[in-house]
Design brief:
The chain is α+β, with helices and mostly antiparallel strands and 77 residues long. It has helices at residues 2-9, 55-75, and strands at 14-19, 33-39, 47-50. 38% of the residues lie in helices and 22% in strands. The protein has a 3-stranded antiparallel β-sheet with strand order 1-2-3. The two termini are 22 Å apart.
Length: 77
């Protein structure tokens, strides 16, 4: 997804988030199960998060964590 986002936006870096916001489990995964991926792949491996709260809170936390991860990885380059 991150590579696709970069392609569509003609960007050199991107971040993508997928997971279960809740309120119920999905595909056997509990609410708050989130994966974050940065692109290009050289920026690092996908990150798994287990977040708590309402669906809205989980989405907000996921966005915040994704932005933080991307900035952290870019700073390390």
């Amino acid at each position: 997804m991150a590579r696709g986002a970069a392609s569509v936006l003609n960007a050199t870096v991107a971040v993508a988030v997928t997971g279960v916001g809740g309120p119920r489990s999905q595909d056997g995964q509990p609410p708050g199960t989130v994966w974050v991926r940065t692109w290009p792949a050289e920026l690092g491996d996908p990150v798994w998060l287990q977040l708590d709260g309402s669906p809205e809170s989980i989405c907000q936390q996921a966005c915040s964590q994704a932005a933080h991860l991307l900035l952290e990885r870019l700073d390390g380059q």
